[in-house]
What does this fold into?
Amino acid sequence: MHITDILVTGEPIIYGAMVSMALGGLAILFVLTYFKKWKWLWREWLTSVDHKKIGVMYILSALLMLFRGGVDAMMMRVQLAFPDLGFLNSQHYNEIFTTHGTIMIIFMAMPFLIGLMNIIVPLQIGARDFAFPYLNALSFWSFFFGMALFNISFVIGGSPDAGWTSYTPLSGAAMSPGPGQNFYLMGLQLSGIGTLATGINLMVTILKMRAPGMKLFHMPIFTWSTLVTCFIIVFAFPILTVALALLTIDRIFGAQFFTLTGEGLPMMWANLFWMWGHPEVYIVILPAFGIFSEVIATFAKKRLFGYNVMVWSMIVIALLSFLVWVHHFFTMGAGAFVNSVFSVSTMLIAVPTGVKIFNWLATLYKSKIEFTVPMLWSLAFIPSFILGGVTGVMLGMAAADYQFHNSYFLIAHFHYVLIAGTVFACFAGLVFWYPKMFGHKMNERLGRWAFWLFFFGFHVCFFPQYFLGLDGMPRRLFITNVAEWLPLNVISTVGAVGMALGFVVFVYNVYYSFRYSERETTGDSWNGNGRTLEWATTTPVPYYNFATVPYVDEIDPYVRMKEEGKTTFEEDEVKPIHMPSYTGQPFIFMALLGLASFGLIFEWMYLAVFGLIGGVVMMIRRSFDYDDGYYVSVEEIKETEKKARGL
Amino acid sequence: MKAKHLRNRWLGLLPLSLIFFLSGCGQLEMTVLNPKGPVAQSQYDLIVYSLWFMLGIIVVVFALFTYMIIKYRENRPGRKESDYDPNLHGNTTIEIIWTIIPVIIVILLSIPTVTTLFDLEKPPVPAAGEEEKEPLVVYATTADWKWFFSYPEQDIETVNYLHIPADRPIEFRLSSADSMSALWIPALGGQKYNMAGMMTTLYLEADEEGVYDGRNSNFNGEGFAAQTFKVYAESEEEFNAWAEEISNEAPELTAERYDELLAPGLTDVQSYSNTHLDYVKHHTREGMGYVVEKYREQFKEKLHLYEIEEQESFQ
It folds into this structure.
């Protein structure tokens, strides 16, 4: 086999990407070697089982993927605003919208939120780590290698090009031969292991490792949203796993589950995909709701309005999320009765969601709003998300959906909910908890610039798309070939540039704040307005999180702790703390599975079998692993705490 | 400084309202909001009906939101002590109210949705005073990336263009020879999928003569952008004359010719004096794999349809 059979050739843009990736890779290798950081990288990060470090790695990966998905988006916007430029051809455009969608959902939104959960949830419930720290590292590395696999597709083997929904029969072996679709299948499959494991892990952590006295209905709302999300993950992800496995067997081993030949059922894919896909939407929106609730309550300096209702509405949304999947293909001709049932169940989701919106507004009533950057993102969410929400109800009306389906109206709708919901929440959460993670805040002035650029860019980009849809412009069209559609597409592209600038300012702010921001001296970073336990421990957070875990019997326990002068360091109560040991096994295990997946993608069976055997060996190795971790001594804890608290 | 920042927020809304304004001007020309037949009309009515509710919701939430962030900002001059109540955390009455109102809205939206859904499964009812006409049956079959319209009644077939009589319901019988696609003529009504091995029925009708745009709206690969067709809605007499002409003058569609047409790729507009329905039935279990088996090798090649860029791009 010749190298040019594997590498993608003939596209100047891809050559450019190859060169810049090679240069970037060399630069990283050089820096690591020059500063002798290899050992540090392995000891402190690659082998870490500390939930905080794993969370940071998740968020860094997600930001990288936001960049990659964003570049994809910008290329599409350039192509649509300047159709005569001949910038992208049909095939290239198809690959780009496929990777854009897949990356933004699977490799950006979910890991970003899981990263925040990783860092914050144990801190909010007074836990010292996850229930299964080894498994947590395994989750991250499965996601990481899945992401790496998916991302190398555009230089090696060719990107998938059947849309992020990968509908059969188009995505089957007959109509999409070659490794492209396999990259999609194996990338998602490998990272899906991690998501499912995280779901179980966080669920057990939240259910079993809460601070003494903390009942479920004392938990911070972000932890609640995480718990509900975990249930959705645990019930939804197995469906994706099975669907991906069936399609993989179809494509690689010639089975006929979703094929046109041999009595296959291509439409079964659409059903399975959306049985996972719709709950997936709520996997990325419920934690966002949790983040907004925390931020709004903190900067309104007020208790969250209707805590119980907020929790129950999330539970209702989670249940309904499994009962609406058909609304993604009302036009499949299932008949008026089926469509009526799913229409009504879809619209019903608007009720608990609407209730949540009113609860946030009521939280602002009689409050003292402080317009910090995380609060700006959270407040901007409310009106923006409403625009996405009401159009969602319109799409839910099946008879009208026949006109909206597959059009830019739909594109505008889901970008309105996913960006104003999930992406705003990721920014809000990151800025909000940034001091907890890195020991300094992000610069407020630059933060405002990033916010306003992104906010206006977002509306200018996506609002016109509602009208493009109503004028009959279909999604996934690689060229603006109707003159009436051009002006709105140009406006849309201008907006996209605004969003890109916002992102650039945000990333610059990370660097700027690292250099110039004041270092935090207290754990309660936002002017002492913290309400939940994560603010009670010191900043930076010691690796054991809490020297002593307080007794909790109410919502927002830290408010009363501050009133009563209590801390998470009650010197007389300090006991030795049991902590897990770092291990390189998860990294090696998932690297081997990554190798096996790579073998399957190119149908190199020896490599696949080698990787799988390696994976089994790692599992056996783990079974005979008698490392029970270690204890942190009382002296060390006291010394660390005294230093951090300046006692 | 805070006041300045708030003023900036309102200034920033200007470009947004500009888009509103621009879009508003174009509204009269937007296809979906300018229905040309009873099906599109019923969907338009439903959309407009729902828009009133949505506007109502938006106005209420935006008003409440604006009120809250102006009145309760921390350093508003003249804040009173009573403007802050950190322990306010619930009010059963108001929570029940704002749960019930959305429920009522959902019910009000569900009723016309469901009735319209059931109506769309039947041919459109003629306007008062007009006689009911038997629907014209048209088999609309897609193959990558073209449209076949077969008229069994007239025994003719067209490729990539469609003639229909105005004021008479059309019963489209949709199917696909390979990938899933969807028939969408936004001026006449919403879409439905074409799927291999299945047949879906879609009723549409034009009540105004004219030329409309139709397309495949469901992404199905490289030639997707070019899978469009023109719809010529004309009077019953004109339609019959056209069908007569095709029947007499167009060439015969032989099985070999049809097979050639099925190969993945693009073709121009064509007419034939018989239909393909005698050769292969793509909507049956037996016929669903026909194209894939026949053209397995062609599907492996990337077509790089550069010609569609030149053909489709407007200068």
In short: Chain A touches chain B through 108 residues (CB under 8 Å). Chain A has three domains: 1-36, 37-583+627-645, 584-626.
